[in-house]
Amino acid sequence: MGTYRAPLEDMRFLIDELLDAQGQLGSLPAFAELGVGPDLTTALLDEAARLAGDVLAPLRRVGDEQPATCADGRVTLSPGYADALRQMGAGGWVGIAAAGEFGGQGLPELYSTATHEMWNGANLAFALAPMLSSGAALAIAAHGSPEQRATYLQKMHAGQWVGTMNLTEAGAGSDLGAMKSRAVPEGDHYRISGQKIFITWGDHDATENIIHLVLAKLPDAPAGSAGISLFIVPKYLVNADGSLGERNDVYPVSCEHKLGIHGSPTCVMAFGDNGGAVGYLLGQENQGLACMFTMMNEARLKVGIQGLAAAEGAFQKASAYARERVQGGVPIVEHPDVKRMLLTMKALIEGARALAYTEALTLDLAHRGPREQRARQQSRIDLMIPIIKAWLTEVGQEVTSLGVQVHGGMGYIEETGAAQYLRDVRITSIYEGTNGIQAADLVTRKLSRDGGAAMQEMLQEVRATVAELEALDDARCNPMRQPLAAALADMEAATACVRQALLEDADVALGASFNYLMQAGYLLGGWHLARAALLAARRLEAGSERLFYRQKIATAAFYAQQILPRCAGHAGAVMAPDTLRSYPLEWI
User: Fold this and answer.
1) Are residues 32 and 133 in the same domain?
2) Which helix (H) or strand (E) holds 570?
3) Reduced to 3 states, what is the DSSP secondary structure of residue 249?
4) CA-to-CA distance for 84 and 548, rounded, in angstroms?
5) What is d(CA 301, CA 6) in angstroms, rounded to the nearest whole number?
6) Does the reported pTM lie above 0.90?
7) CA 587 to each of CA 57, 462, 573, 579: distance values in angstroms, whole numbers, following the listed order
8) How many domains is the chain partitioned into structurally?
9) FRET label pair with 49: which of 245, 278, 537, 568, CA 20 to 30 Å apart?
10) Which DSSP string corresponds to 21-84?
11) Is the pLDDT of residue 171 over 90?
């Protein structure tokens, strides 16, 4: 049944054709010398695909069957993981989108997103290490002093050191204001004490050092989340000349026993059990959450990509199995319901990928595009991030579950590896802000802060695609026209309903928020597939005989007819939010 292979044809189509990275990014000062365009896309993605397929993918089952363990204050990684992490660092992949002045490659986030999909499609548990490390480096780059940036970033981007994020505590969860970790000033540093849970890749010996970013409170800090500060706490202290010094007072207590991502050492971390861990303030005192939110959009985009990547891996495995498994005298791929499941998987994946890559481009334009356009692009990416994080991870759960179903009884047996995708992806809708938190953020913050202007601008772009479908009058694209128009009308009505609810009762709006987010995700996935189909139709009209273009049109038509109707169901729930009030808590 083979192993994971990156979906390079679709990736290149999105980057070079639908999104026109060369035209959109190639001339920007930040990227002008990189040669952004088809040649770079092909070279970069081909090399990343080799690492993903040949090195990371074979370790997926190894990590699942031989999880990371912790004993005597030391974590032992799954076999092969340390060497793979060193290979990734040596290839420059950890700092692919980081600034060149800090040792990164300075490539667009669009390319980083594609490689991130490969790492996670091949091995989600492993891919968490470079993801968290690049996020920690981003926070140091944004808020660190010149000395801190000089001390940490070069080696983090080179993969010699990795970074972690230490936020959650037992009893606090998403309520960071309730944390108990403390930081006491001591000369040019602080003494950190406390315990953190759920710390991804919290400890290991695969790299020379681990740079922990730790949220803690000062003795005189304001109450609640306003009193949180962020600290750099290295596993090994760093001497003035950059060499490593003594071991810091930070140790793993245990590794969590989890449903999935077994190869990722998710640690309980103890700070200061032997006198206090040495930490260095990152940014300003009591501004820790602001520092963390610097990297929130990138982090949530990457978690959404994890959902997409797991779905792609599950689809590849299910598709291969369906072609091999014979039942009733024919491969089961010929059975109508199996075909339905596989097409649903494929359509959801391609819609999700198009949405994520499009907004990765938006992120590039918000950070490095023409200055007069950055505020508008930032408003758009702020609106889209909660949709990407939540909808893609919900799609990931649906697709990986379908992957088990395609395998039938064998999908429920661990030896096939189908169930691992479902187990691994389940965490993605929980961490980096649960999907309920994403929905609340979308409705109460992103939709309301500009009077719905960013959403209306997005819907206007969908409306333009509907008009383009009507003007084209192509028999191949016609099946998309009415479903997309209907889904757009439902979204406009639901948006008006939610905005009115926000004015009258925030709890009513919050009760509708998850359905509203899912409705938006399904609409936007279908919209991007329709855009892809229109481009494919133009290529065919120009004389191309490429099978891929015919497949893109067929997939978009399937999505429009079989998946877009889900928007109506979510819209009905959004526009009847008061039903939640009819259930007193004692009835639940």
Assistant:
1) yes
2) helix 566-574
3) coil
4) 33
5) 19
6) yes
7) 47, 41, 20, 14
8) 4
9) 537
10) HHHHHTTSTTTTTTTTTHHHHHHHHHHHHHIIIIIITTHHHHHHHS--EEETTEEEPPTTHHHH
11) no
CB 315 within 8 A of CB 399: yes
Neighbouring residues of 576: CB distance < 8 A, sequence distance ≥ 6: none
Task: Decide if pLDDT at 177 tops 90.
Answer: no
Residue 522 has pLDDT above 60, yes or no: yes
- Whether 417 and 446 map to the same domain: the answer is no
Residue type, 324: E
> What size, in residues, is the chain?
588
Residues 409 and 452 in one domain: no
Which amino acid, 1? M
Residue (of 402, 167, 448) closest to 291 by Cα position:
167
pLDDT in tens, 203-249: 999 999 999 999 999 999 998 888 999 999 999 999 999 999 999 99
Give the pairing type, strands 209-217 and 161-166: parallel
Rounded Cα gap, residues 435 and 521, in angstroms: 12
Q: CB neighbours of 292 closer than 8 A, spacing ≥ 6? A: 139, 165, 167, 215, 230
Q: Is residue 246 flagged as an active site residue?
A: no
Percent of the residues in the chain that have a pLDDT greater than 90, as a whole number: 90
Structure tokens at 493: 């009505």
Q: What confidence tier does 446 reach under pLDDT thresholds 50, 70, 90?
A: very high
Question: Per residue in 67-93, pLDDT tens?
Answer: 999 999 999 999 999 999 999 999 999
Helix, coil or strand: residue 243:
coil
Q: Structure tokens of 91?
A: 């290839």
- More confidently predicted of 319 and 293: 319
**Position 2 pLDDT exceeds 60:** no
Enclosing domain of residue 48: 14-67+78-157
Q: Kindly state whether residues 209 and 250 are assigned to the same domain.
A: yes
Rounded-to-integer distance, Cα 562 and Cα 33, Å = 44
Q: Could you tell me if residue 584 is inside a domain?
A: no
| Catalytic hit among 65, 432, 461, 504 | 432
Task: Say yes or no: 147 and 168 in one domain.
Answer: no
> Strand, helix or coil at 263?
coil
Q: Alpha-carbon Rg of the chain, whole angstroms?
A: 24
Q: Choose among 554, 556, 533, 536: nearest CA to 545.
A: 536
- Residue 587: the pLDDT is 82
Examine the domain organization and report whether 427 and 447 are in the same domain: no
